[in-house]
């Protein structure tokens, strides 16, 4: 599972709605012929959106997917409350236990344990960090034993149940879920952004501000302790950001300039080995969102003309995902936000009426069982 960075706005930071990032334009490449498509397209169902909702409004916000193809996020009720939800691989939803003010599931591990937050009060103020085990809610302890809702959020969980998030205004790790105890500890590095933990307990993020000597750090969490090391410098960029880390400890990095503008390239770094994918010279900017354990990267590509398309990259050129879906699919995909270790991809798409939808791309299995 891919863990997105935690920021003050968990929904945006974990793959929420990408408002204003695409245009309705003709496809530059033909779609797959019948029987040759690499992915099936399944729309995530939303049940309760009011009939008088604004045109183009979406009732679902799907942010993460585990290796079983179970996705999580939130679903809007007819009372305009977002409720934490999981979706089965066929796109059908199931609500998670939550209070009347709603909440959101932000990550789900291979064992089906989801984490996120519950709204303590209406209007978006006050959050409690929570987990869901078999759909039942567990409130995670706040740092320093505080009991009031302080915008705490759990935003990542690894295979072993180690959880990363925010509490008491800083970044924390929760451990002991399902073991009859729950511990919370502050991450000591003073991160200003934070990602993880991955399945190896690796956390990473940014320390400090650029004008004060900003650094990227990797941390290894073990037996309640976190040891940190400097991330290797990425050549050819003024500033770079660690954005995801997979189980092989390959790290996805994006670059920006002095103004924090995305430079339109990404790098996959393993130890000191770096693979930099840069297509700016071809008028193509690559915004990478996620990497799986096979090193496959997904994201969004933008042309100088303003056209954008979703891409998947493994070792060569970024490929437009619209070329890999059936020619008669009812969707035009414009961004890919997450990928699991079986190749299933979360994406945003427009339906034939131009209404934004979230969809799941599942690899097609041929008659011999291969993809």
Structure, described:
- The chain is mainly beta and 371 residues long.
- The chain has a domain at 59-186.
- 1% of the residues lie in helices and 45% in strands.
- It contains one helix and 28 strands.
- The chain has a four-stranded antiparallel sheet with strand order 1-28-27-26, with no helix packed on it. A four-stranded antiparallel sheet has the order 2-3-4-5, with no helix packed on it.
- The radius of gyration is 20 Å and the shape is globular.
- The two termini are 20 Å apart.
Shape: globular
Radius of gyration: 20 Å
Report the sheet-strand fraction.
over 45%
- What topology, given as strand order, has the largest sheet? 1-28-27-26
**N- and C-termini, Cα separation:** 20 Å
Find the structural class using helix and strand composition.
Answer: mainly beta
**Sheet with most strands:** 4 strands, antiparallel
Helix coverage percent: under 10%
């Amino acid at each position: 599972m891919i863990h997105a960075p935690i920021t003050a706005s968990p929904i945006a930071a974990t793959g929420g709605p990408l408002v204003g990032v695409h245009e309705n334009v003709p496809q530059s490449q033909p779609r797959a012929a019948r029987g040759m498509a690499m992915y099936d397209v399944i729309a995530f169902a939303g049940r309760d959106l009011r009939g008088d909702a604004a045109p183009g409004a979406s009732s679902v916000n799907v942010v993460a997917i585990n290796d079983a193809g179970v996705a999580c996020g939130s679903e809007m009720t007819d009372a305009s409350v977002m409720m934490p939800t999981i979706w089965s691989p066929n796109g059908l939803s199931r609500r998670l236990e939550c209070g009347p003010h709603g909440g959101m599931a932000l990550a789900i591990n291979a064992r089906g344990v989801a984490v996120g937050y519950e709204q303590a009060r209406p209007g978006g103020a006050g959050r409690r960090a929570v987990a869901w085990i078999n759909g039942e809610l567990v409130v995670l302890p706040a740092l320093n034993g505080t009991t009031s809702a302080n915008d705490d959020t759990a935003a990542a969980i690894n295979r072993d149940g180690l959880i990363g998030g925010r509490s008491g205004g800083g970044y924390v790790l929760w451990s002991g879920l399902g073991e009859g105890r729950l511990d919370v500890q502050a991450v000591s590095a003073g991160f200003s952004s934070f990602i993880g933990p991955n399945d190896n307990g690796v956390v990473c993020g940014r320390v400090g501000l650029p004008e004060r000597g900003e650094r990227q750090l990797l941390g290894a969490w073990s037996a309640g302790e976190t040891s940190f090391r400097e991330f290797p410098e990425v050549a050819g960029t003024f500033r770079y950001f660690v954005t995801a880390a997979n189980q092989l400890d390959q790290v996805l990095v994006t670059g920006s300039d002095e103004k924090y503008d995305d430079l339109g390239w990404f790098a996959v770094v393993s130890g000191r080995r770096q693979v930099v994918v840069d297509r700016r010279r071809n008028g193509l900017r690559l915004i990478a969102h996620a990497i799986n354990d096979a090193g496959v990267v997904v994201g969004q590509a933008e042309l100088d003309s303003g056209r954008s398309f979703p891409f998947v990259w493994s070792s060569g050129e970024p490929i437009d995902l619209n070329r890999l879906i059936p020619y008669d699919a009812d969707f035009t995909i414009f961004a890919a936000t997450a990928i699991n270790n079986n190749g299933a991809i979360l994406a945003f798409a427009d339906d034939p009426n131009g209404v934004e939808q979230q969809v799941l791309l599942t690899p097609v299995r041929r008659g011999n069982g291969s993809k």
